[in-house]
Amino acid sequence: MAPNIPTTSDRWTARQERGMDGLQLDLNAAIPPIGPTSCLIKMAAVSLNYRDVAMLTGAYPGRFKGSMVPCSDGAGTIIAIGSNVSLYKVGDRVCTLFSQGHQSGFVTPAIRETTLGNKIDGVLRRHTLYDETGLVAVPDSLSLIEASTLPCAALTAWNALFGLEGRRLKAGDAVLAQGTGGVSLFAMQFGLAAGATVIATTSSDTKAERLRRELGVQHVVNYKTNEYWGETVRGFTPDQEGAHHVIEVGGENSMQQSLKAVRAEGVISIVGFLGGKPLAGQELCSFTDVLFIAAIVRGINIGSKEQFVAMNEFIDKHGIKPVVDGKVFRFEEAKEAYQYLLDQKQWGKVIVLALAASLLIVLSTVNILHRTPSRNGQHPLDIPYDQNNTVKSLGVDGHISALVLTGGDTYLVGVGKADVTGPVVEINFMGYADPNQLGSGVRQRLYSRAFIIGSTEVPEDRFAYLILDTQSGDTAIRNGILEALQDKGGDFAKLYGNQNIAVTGTHSHSGPGAWLNYLLPQITSRGFHKPSYQAIVDGAVASIVRAHENLAKGHLSVGTIDVLDANINRSPYAYLANPAEEREKYDHDVDKTMTVLRFTHTTEDGEKDIGILNWFPVHGTSMLGNNTLVTGDNKGVAASLFEKSTGNTDFVAGFSQANVGDTSPNVLGAYCEYGDEAGELCDFRTSLCGNKTQPCHGRGPYWGRHDAGTASNFEIGRRQFAAARELYDNSTSAAWTPVKGQMVRSLHHFVDLSTHSFTLPNGTLVHTCPAAMGYSFAAGTTDGPGAFDFKQAPDDPHASPFWRVIGNRVATPNDTQKACHGDKIILLDVGESDTPYQWSPNIVDVQLLRVGQLFVIVSPGEATTMAGRRWKGAVHDAAVKIASRERETSHGTPIVVLGGPANTYTHYITTSEEYSIQRYEGASTLYGPWTLDAYISLTQSYLPELFEPSGHLPTLVKGPQPPIQVNVSMSFITPVVVDRAPFFKHFGGIKSDVKPLHKPGDTIFATFVGANPRNNLRLDGTFAAVEQFDYVDKAWRQVRDDGDWSLVFEWKRTSTTLGTSEVKISWETGWETGDWRGDSGPSDAHGDLLVRNGATDDLRGLYRLRYYGDAKALGGSITPFESVSGEFKIV
User: Fold this and answer.
1) Please, are residues 79 and 5 in contact by the beta-carbon 8 Å criterion?
2) In 3D, which of 307, 301, 262, 304 has the Cα closest to residue 285?
3) DSSP for residue 742
4) Residues designated catalytic
5) Nearest to 630 by CA among 448, 440, 471
6) What pLDDT, in 10s, does the model give residues 1092-1114?
């Protein structure tokens, strides 16, 4: 044989009627020579059918002599072909044909002699050799795992519904499918896709709910509780005449009811015999029954290759995804897979992977993945092979890394994550500027996620991109991070500094504030709070340290995907001020494309996925202004879902902001919530309702829940996660562009924008202004209206005398300042106010990062959609020109992304046209109408530094340094004085306990005698936990903590005078079962927290809640304590 073509292969053999003992693993069995029309297939997956189990137990009528390789259903990749093969080529993905000789037409006795796993050796082996006529090309939209389910179950269902001339299923027909076996599930999916009414029977209410929720089955009947279900089924058909097609799987035991359910001239397709032998005295059907009903009863012998091809076209056309059980077995675990099927534990098809024995498979997310649509002709779960026909790599989560890419360069890459959750109670939230929005607990902890990219040749050539679950980056925070790295010494002091650290925020509006450097954002938070600041600094540094320790050689690749339903433009009136010819270049008034940077480590086995970093613009305002629980908002949800979906606790998923300025997650639009115009859309120009600002609110996808935006927030996060995961699961070269080029560069300059002069492309000399906020800044937005009825796009500068008086207590703008800001009616002249210290930044960060052909604009403000487009376009065009001049042609076309708000918070960046409208974003553009043009000019002028040879010191500081006001900032935040337990009580004592019994979907809670959680932030720890009892090890295991969306920790002061408080811990299991959706929302949406498999059975067990607290004594000492609730069962 030719080199690299295997001559032996592992296989399983079976001996009939010997049960599981009849299955034997045969190692290194000889592979026959490849015939002229034969194809050698490296099997990827084998799908089990009840037939395979029945053969071992003797229940199957077909017999074979001696031993036989079992199983008929599999899929793999052709690795060698015979000299006369014309239908396929090496590398093609193929399924096996159940009856190798059944090419078309009806089945014959001769065709029955060609069945796999019975007459011919089957597919439960690592390599198979079949004639090309016995193979069928895999549908483009399916993975090899999914395709392995087609040869028997899918084709049988297809033949039953479409195989009889004159009785083919059509829209409007009714289909009855019995049970939840493979054939029935496919029949349901085919029926729904064809526009039929689908009715199912099952013995399990849990499965009934899954059929409705996950597949969209219209009617489900429990045949255990409804003995005469046939009449019930007939009543569910549109005309109550009965089903046009019945998929009969029970055999004699269920045929009587099938005849009751079928319509006259309807078709009963007998495809199985799961019901076994009838019980003594059981009423059975007769020939007379069939005659009286005038039904067509038809036995199905799978189907032909011709039908298989037609079915695959239908699958591709309708995007049908086979239902694959969440438990996937390794090749060596074939016996366990058989037993699992025999015990009827499965939901969907049971899969045995025919991969190398050394590769462990953990596919905990397969129930999400098998329903994920493919793009670019490849599916998420396809298994790539290298030129030596070996599996290239499995990530720790079992996902196969995208090693089909070629041409990418090697870099040092590392990822890290750490907790940055500050005080979760009694501190004002940063974002909505509402002093009454004080934290009362935590639903989801906040994190810093660090991504380091470096040169393999020059250690100093690297950068670290941080994504914090905070409202923004900040001058003081960044400075604190840099100082801490210097204090660490060694490589941290040498390799990381001002030039190469980018600190971005997800722009969440649901985290503690009081950590920012300048006075303006400190006003509503009652000043600066050192613990809040220190938590972010310490966590950010910890994430960098972990990413640094994770550094190894690897590769980077870039992909994009559109997310059409996660953002809208909240200021379309201002957007329309941009030139029409510019707007016509784009399909949407917000950017809908998510750009994903994929990180892999190179190992001996191939590439291993370690993280993703993506950019997509949507405001962190899904959680509303009345929310008081700490969360990471929608991007925190997206990141958490993605990380959990991998099954790898070290995987880091960063969801960074982009040109977020005018975007909103409240995708249903902005409406008047009360007043005379309640229920109407807010005014298009001003966002007013009857000349008032406050009634106008944007509505998220689950508006109306009165849950402070919690469900809408989760849904917008889920949509971002789903898109990123879909792209991640697409491992084709068409989906990903390898990053190439040895240039790893970063630059950072401080620039004073209060006096910056520059020339526009048309030759006009312009300048920026000292920072100032306009009147519409106080109006807020449709995501969070301001107080005192300021309106956006104002025409009356005296609209709010109260705020005008407050504004005039800061510096009064002179005529020069007013003229500089043009259309802006100045409310707060913050850039010229420095009493008692500076109110807002005049010195800003200009930063750019580069690796290969990827350029990152690190924006200090919230660029609007069009502002970001112009900025990225300008950097792209300048990079092309410089590359041409420097004869740098090997890196490919520049890819430019924008991330922020970063490093310091400069509020908004609009186009000059949008600025002239003076809605909220324009009024919050600090440095006047030429702010965007200044940023573009500066980045273009500094861009050549990214093309220069190595030699820049990471710690170098360029430009005037901004003031660091940590030690001079005022604070009126009351410290924790003392915690006391009520009389005759103790800390952690239970005030109200859990109920002993619950069902999946319930909210389970207990209240405890509490202490102030500000005493110990418990970074990288938790205030609350759910523990489950392990009956095997006889021990309690923690299964949920503060990082889980479904577990809520709430703290409430019960007496300020006495210093008493209470804590409520709630486990909202509805987030894990899908019950959180209620009756609204898409029934086919995925991403519920039970990504472990989505089954409520996973929740059944014995549990308890645990509370971790810390009490402060009057003298200042802090004592930790713990407490547990009573035990409870979920049944």
Assistant:
1) yes
2) 262
3) S
4) 664
5) 440
6) 333 445 789 999 999 999 999 99
